[in-house]
Amino acid sequence: MTDTSAAALLDRIQAPEGSGREIPDAATRETIGRAPVHTVADLDDAIARAKAAQPAWEGLGHAERSELLLAAADAIDANAEALAHILSREQGKPLNGPNARFELGACTAWLRTNATTVLEPEVLIDDESMHAELVYKAAGVVGAIGPWNWPLMITIWQIGPSLRMGNTVVVKPSEYTPLSVLAMLAVMNDVLPADVLTGISGDREVGARLSSHPDIAKIMFTGSTATGRKIIEASAGNLARLTLEMGGNDAGIVLPGTDPAAIAEDLFWGAFLNTGQTCAALKRLYVHDSVYDQVVEALAGIAASMPMGNGLDENNVLGPLQNRPQFDIVSRLVEDARARGARIVTGGEAAPELGELFYRPTIVADISNDADLVQEEQFGPALPVIRYSDVDQAFAWANGIDAGLGASVWSSDPEAAREAATRMQSGTVWINTHGGIHPMVPFGGVKASGYGLEFGVEGLKSVSVTQVVSGPGRKG
Hints:
It is a single chain. It is built from 16 helices and 18 strands. Helix 1 packs across helix 7 (178-189), helix 4 packs across helix 5 and helix 5 packs parallel to helix 6 (151-164). The chain has helices spanning 4-13, 40-59, 61-78, 80-91, 100-116, 151-164, 178-189, 204-212, 225-234, 260-272, 292-305, 324-339, 372-375, 391-398, 414-421, 456-462; strands spanning 21-24, 31-35, 122-126, 131-138, 141-145, 168-172, 197-199, 218-222, 241-245, 250-254, 282-288, 343-346, 362-365, 382-388, 406-410, 428-431, 450-451, 464-471. This is Aldehyde dehydrogenase family protein.
């Protein structure tokens, strides 16, 4: 049953009866609320108000902004259960496991870290010749364009550092998951000054205008590579600075001699976190001949035992695909693998008894590296496990696509693992784990997975503009 406080929070942000766009429950497909349908004119007004509010917000100084962000984190905590229920229904992820409640916890952890991380001026020269410092100032108005898979957490990744550095922010959530984001922004705006943080729920036309608007100084985007390319094109006119976290098709390599039992559960969650709907999830697993069968068997056993179903059921840890297009992609890729002669070890089919968009957790073995399920990002609960005998070949396959968000190497030999990690072409490489992140450790992609860093001090720098202040040096 939905938390009654969630219903009250929805009433604060949804469109009036008879208007707006109906948003379905990902598991049941019942309408859970009506998202406002904002227009380009609404966006223009929001940006104008954000621009007017920005100087005073920056003028508060770091200490006062930090206090307000900590208060916003407290407000999220106070409403965390209601927000988790809205998120679970709208996105589909279960309340428990590394899912909805976990996501709300990550939101406040990142927001508090953004609030308390210090970015000092950098002294470049300090001698008799001159004194020069590099200082970081607010960019202006930031446009934050978020995805549907981790809609709250990733929105915080965008707005937390932006607000911390004195920018104002206009947020455009995904059309699939606007309610949870608007609800979180409403809670934060209970403590933030007016017009510092605004949510606009609109269509692609609104998103295109946000990217190209002359008063937008910075765009932060998480989503597909195709959309990211359009944002790059749209921002050419306003020369907005960009941080782009785009598609990933993360590879993992299990090296010879690795103990399958020791890594199986971490491998599973690296791939199936959020039912596989995670940008930096493990999406291609290369396993050496010597341990291939044992790894496949262990993964299949875990996959078959994981409870899947409606996210509001406290027992479930896997949910549905969030939307029909993504469900169709996963189905197509698994069917293509089956047609090519790959072995479906477990899963490989929809679970209609659970709901319209449920797909059983799937392990696909004996699949060739050129199969679509390997070469394309599936973004769902289906993991291809590719056999290799030559380690150099495994690295060639892993690095052979135009994506480089994350990667992992797995080994019982720490020295071999660290040497192997340096051979992976990705923004992050994990050893004997996959997908773990920390608010102080920079994160970003290479190749077609995007550019720019988020998190920690580097994340604060990314939403700033630099200024060099120089003057006379020390007198002898």
